[in-house]
From TrEMBL:
The keyword Signal applies. One of its GO terms (cellular component) is fungal-type vacuole membrane. Pfam families: Vps62. The lineage of its organism: Eukaryota, Fungi, Dikarya, Ascomycota, Saccharomycotina. One of its GO terms (biological process) is protein targeting to vacuole. Keywords: Signal. InterPro entries: Vps62 (IPR009291), VPS_Associated (IPR053102). Residues 1-15 form the signal peptide. It comes from the Eukaryota. This is Vacuolar protein sorting-associated protein 62.
Length: 445
């Protein structure tokens, strides 16, 4: 017991009497935004008028959106790569919640068959009209044996181009100089996590992930990246960048741009800002349920994408390519994959917190694109609707974790503001990991 108290006393003395033992690693990392830059508010798209619009040319994608398109590090041992939604849907029928065919099973499905509402004939000969909310893309193949179309395509080495895996870009005007660029990443299958070595759990056919880059007067200010039911928001200057040659009309120029980096987790494709092991859908680090990221193949979505401008009601295709595939698929509110398998299906399994196969996801317009907050929605406990943008990267854990000047202390910076020093040192001992650290990290970033 004496040794414990001696250790505590020694730590306090070091922090009080030896200056370098109490260095603040965040000194020198302050940015212009730390000086309380005052910017005008965002305006909901439905309330915009000609005087407040940021995008003056109808349907045009600003060049700065492409210059700041995130680069995605896919996991080195990834099995389910990005895919083309136009090719993906050809392997499905559309069915309602009762398993009735909504579309003709004898005809190949196309993106034009995806609509907001359906009028169809039931097996008993009666007709019905339903919203697409109650429909599922239902695989014609047994997805449990990994048909080839379920695996997607790897990015080309060196360029990051995926010929058969276009991303989807949706740009929204938020007024007063603000513009949101949503980059959607589609994967044909989501492989869920393992819990204590058992699983995978929470698998589903089809997987939509996305990131948001928010601009003010053409300059990127914030970035948000999806992860399961939530995600993370960062100041744009906080995330790691990668130098790439600027492209104009598909051709390289000698100009260099700094592109933000996102790390896509193995199987789940959840997005993070650093390499390593990340807590999966829990408020603070929980090792048995984790995502894993590393610097595997780099995907450059700006080399192949479908682009649209959305004003909250009307969707405008940006080129002839998007006009060819139409816009009806964006209004499809159904699930982009099979319905959760019934308990008596031989492929289904259950653990106390999850099933092996669950419902497929919904599409891009179901991600609350008109939002003013960086976050699309909030957890039940977040009753104050807070979505702070971190000023330092939250680092991963484990063998793949990295340490550099961009990555902050996961316990937050609040401790560096505590005075006197002996009290600060005491807090450091008491708050190692745990809930209090999570709260400090949430509010300080």
């Amino acid at each position: 017991m004496e040794w414990v108290w001696l250790s505590i006393f020694t730590n306090i003395c070091l922090a009080v009497f030896i200056p370098w033992a109490d260095d603040n690693p965040f000194v020198g990392l302050e940015t212009p935004q730390d000086k309380k830059e005052v910017l005008p508010p965002l305006i909901p798209p439905s309330e915009l008028d000609n005087s407040s619009r940021s995008l003056k040319k109808k349907g045009q994608i600003p060049e700065y959106v492409i210059d700041n398109c995130p680069l995605v590090y896919l996991y080195s041992e990834e099995k389910y790569w990005p895919s083309d939604i136009a090719e993906y849907v050809t392997h499905f029928d559309i069915k309602d919640a009762q398993g009735n065919n909504v579309t003709d099973p004898l005809e190949a499905l196309t993106l034009q068959n995806l609509q907001q509402d359906y009028y169809y004939t039931l097996a008993n000969g009666t007709h019905t009209n339903i919203s697409s909310d109650d429909t599922f893309l239902t695989s014609r193949d047994d997805f449990d044996i990994d048909p080839k179309w379920l695996l997607g395509s790897r990015p080309e080495y060196g360029t990051g181009h995926i010929k058969n895996g276009p991303a989807v870009l949706v740009v929204m005007d938020k007024g007063n100089g603000w513009v949101d660029a949503f980059w959607f990443y589609f994967y044909p299958f989501n492989l869920g996590p393992y819990i204590m070595g058992y699983g995978p759990w929470g698998n589903h056919v089809g997987d939509w992930e996305h990131s948001l880059v928010r601009f003010y007067q053409g300059k990127p200010k914030y970035i948000w990246m999806s992860a399961h039911g939530g995600g993370s928001a960062y100041r744009f200057e906080a995330v790691e960048k990668f130098k790439k040659l600027r492209r104009r009309n598909g051709k390289l120029t000698p100009e260099i741009v700094q592109r933000p980096i996102i790390f896509s987790a193995r199987g789940t494709h959840a997005n993070y800002a650093s390499a390593g092991q990340h807590a999966h859908d829990v408020p603070f680090f929980f090792m048995p349920l984790s995502d894993f990221t590393d610097r595997g193949p780099m995907w450059d979505p700006s080399m192949n994408y479908y682009a649209y401008v959305f004003d909250g009601e009307k969707i405008i295709p940006s080129s002839d390519r998007e006009k060819t595939i139409g816009i009806s698929w964006l209004y499809f509110n159904g699930h982009w994959g099979d319905r959760k398998l019934p308990w008596n299906d031989s492929r289904q399994r259950w653990c106390p917190v999850q099933w092996r196969y669950i419902d497929g996801p919904t599409g891009p317009l179901n991600k609350n694109l008109p939002r003013i907050s960086l976050c699309p929605h909030f957890a039940w406990w977040n009753f104050w609707r807070g979505c702070p943008a971190r000023r330092l990267i939250k680092k991963g854990e484990g063998l793949d974790a990295e340490k550099n000047d961009l990555i902050g202390d996961n316990c937050g910076i609040l401790l560096y503001r505590v005075r006197p020093r002996w009290l600060r040192s005491l807090f450091r001992i008491v708050t190692w990991r745990g809930v209090l650290c999570f709260i400090m990290d949430y509010f300080t970033g």
